[in-house]
Amino acid sequence: MDSKSVEDMIEGLSGFHFSGFHMDGSKLNNIEKPTTTLAIENVHKQPFIIGVSGGAASGKTTVCDMIIQQLHDQRVVLVNQDSFYHELTEEELATVHEYNFDHPDSFDTEKLLDSMENLRHGQAVDIPNYDFKSYKNSVFPARRVNPSDVIILEGILIFHDPRVRELMNMKIFVDTDADVRLARRIRRDTVEKGRDIGVVLDQYSKFVKSAFDDFILPTKKYADIIIPRGGDNHVAIDLIVQHIRTKLGQHDLCKIYPNLYVIQSTFQIRGMHTLIRDSQTTKHDFVFYADRLIRLVVEHGLGHLPFTEKQGLYILVWISVRGYAVYQLLEVVRVWRMLCEHVAKGSRLARFLFIGKVRTTVSSLFMKNYHKTSQKGMCCYWILFSARAIQLSKLFHYLQERVYRNPTSYFSISYPHLRVYMWCAKASQE
Ligand SMILES: Nc1ncnc2c1ncn2[C@@H]1O[C@H](COP(=O)(O)OP(=O)(O)O)[C@@H](O)[C@H]1O
Ligand SMILES: O=c1ccn([C@@H]2O[C@H](COP(=O)(O)O)[C@@H](O)[C@H]2O)c(=O)[nH]1
Fold first, then answer.
1. Nearest CA residue ID for atom 16, ligand 2
2. Is the pLDDT of residue 347 over 90?
3. Rounded Cα gap, residues 122 and 1, in angstroms
4. Nearest to 342 by CA among 404, 405, 421, 398
5. ipTM value
6. CB 273: neighbour CB atoms within 10 A?
7. Once rounded to an integer, what is the mean pLDDT over residues 124-139?
């Protein structure tokens, strides 16, 4: 349905003038409507890039492995910042114990950026294989990394350079206590890397500890998610994986249709989808859950209608109605139409500005003492009027007397530019 027909429909129902409900028809008509196959061919799939940072031996690699394991049905690649250590010169090699491997300058960030940009644009890259024993990245052959749906970039300082941060869709910081990190580091460096414990402790006190305080910890503020206890935190990892899956699901469609908004999938939504697909579901439950799903779509859509900010005094009339989605809309239009005809009639500026539906949770917050909005089929709408258009006493009188026969209550809140009148009333249909 185009913008014109929406306006026509409501104008037809009301016979009144709309000032707020204006969709720009020309804009809508100009929106490209790509044919699906063509669009899919032309759209370059941008990978979902996740950054995983945290102190050395905090459990970054462990967390990445767990995410990759759970995303086994997706194409995921792991890129380690370690691979981009500068190769040590002969001079540096001679005094390797004085080399600070925890300073941002020890990494070839330009090369890392270059590789990430290529991957982002769908090109395979060769990632160096840094050797911790020889301190060189030319001993082992480079690793070929193909473009993927998800790229995980892991390392102690990957949040340090803003250009690298900007590449990321999600930033995770693994937060593990310093003593745990040190204990793990000692075990790893002595057992796996064959280093002397004295050298490990010396490196820790000389460089690792201060670099963590000076360079790594300050980047924690950039993280979207902070995971305490690293790989032991299964709840955090499950939530991260769930979020990545949601984002991956939205990726393709949103790129094909730039004006497409995908409602976030929740347990509740998935549950309702399951119920309406189940052949055992009763007719009554099918209608009930289908209706709830339709409402969520309508509600979400209303939130995306274009609007213009206005200064002035406004009145928000809050109405709760019961019945199926289409009935509710008709009922609200009926109330609004009556208000326009009987209350605002004769006013030069009689203007209905906007109409919207309120989330049941929000409604019940406002109305918990007045009305049980959680009742089956019950939901709330609001109508915004310009205050100049309406005589308040007339409005209340009319609401009380005519619109609903048995109003339960109302109350008002005043803001400088907005006067809110919450109206709770039972509408008829069962
Ligand atoms: N939750 C954990 N419990 C016990 N040991 C762990 C845990 N997470 C990691 N480790 C161990 O600690 C060391 C460092 O972990 P790793 O994930 O490689 O950290 P990072 O990538 O941050 O250096 C490894 O030897 C690993 O096996
Ligand atoms: O040649 C090297 C290069 C690096 N290190 C240390 O490694 C950690 C970072 O690696 P994680 O896997 O994130 O723990 C860093 O603290 C460096 O000091 C090294 O010892 N030798």
1. 56
2. no
3. 37
4. 398
5. 0.98
6. 14
7. 91
Using a 6 Å cutoff on CB, does residue 185 contact ligand 1? no
CA-nearest residue, atom 5 of ligand 1: 184
Residues comprising the chain, all counted:
430
Contact 65, 80 (CB under 8 A): no
The DSSP code sequence of 192-247 is IS---HHHHHHHIIIIIHHHIIIIIGGGGGG-SEEEETGGG-HHHHHHHHHHHHHH
Question: Mean pLDDT score of the chain, rounded to an integer?
Answer: 75
Q: Where are the domains of the chain?
A: 48-246, 263-306, 312-426
pLDDT digits (tens, 9 = 90+) for 78-115: 999 999 999 999 999 999 999 999 999 999 999 999 99
* pLDDT single digits (tens) 50-66: 999 999 999 999 999 99
Which residues have C-beta atoms less than 6 Å from ligand 2?
56-57, 60, 82, 85, 101-102, 132, 135, 156, 208
Sheet with 418-425, side-by-side order of all strands: 352-358, 378-386, 314-322, 418-425, 407-414
How far is ligand 1, taken at its centre, from the CA of residue 79, in Å? 17
Phi then psi for residue 244, to 5 deg, are -60, -40
Round to whole Å and give the CA distance between 294 and 324: 10
Could you count the other beta carbons within 10 Å of the beta carbon of residue 143?
Answer: 14
Find the 336 Cα to ligand 1 centroid distance in Å: 63
pTM over 0.90: no
Domain spanning 48-246: which superfamily?
A: P-loop containing nucleotide triphosphate hydrolases (3.40.50.300)
pLDDT tens digits, 305-315: 776 655 555 56
Fill in the DSSP letter of residue 123.
-
Backbone angles phi, psi at 416, to 5 degrees: -55, -40
Nearest to 424 by CA among 356, 378, 377: 378
